[in-house]
Amino acid sequence: MTISKLRILSIVGGIALLSASFALGFIAGSQSQKASIKTPATFSSLDMERAFGSANSPSKPADHAAMQGSATQEPAALSLGSLVAGLEKKVASHPENIDQQLLLAQTYNELGDRTKSLKLLHVLNKQAPKDAQVKITLATVLMKGEETQELKEALQVFDEAIKLQPDAASMARLYQGEIKVKLDSMKKN
Fold it and tell me: How far is residue 186's CA from residue 57's CA, in Å, rounded to a whole number?
């Protein structure tokens, strides 16, 4: 298995593990409370800390007993913001770690900050021009845009990724087909 495949698998696996951890933490936390309490429509910082640990020490789970006494709960967006801040600190302290930077760019994109995501991905693409995963991530974010220039750039970046990682060609060609359909529909309108 190539290093690129391992990197892709580790990123996908990390995201899956993070999601599973959150779900298990939330379930465990809600089961420890009285049955009459309904599941919240949004996740609070308490729920986030149960799943991921404290934002101040992301690797160490927060003290459950201390959290039980907390009367105020923040909206989930604030908690996600603190998690992003922690990831930003990790990236700043280890700028050579491309995987962490890719995770941060993907997180920005998932949270709706496409501009920050693209800015970081463009910088990464310049820093690591031979990294196929950087190119694939950049192209997949670009292809979600509505501007012709971004879509054309995505087509080109997918071509570059295929040259670096030929085994990604089928996936990249599929995405390129989607981009071409999108470009054709933009011409008709």
Answer: 47
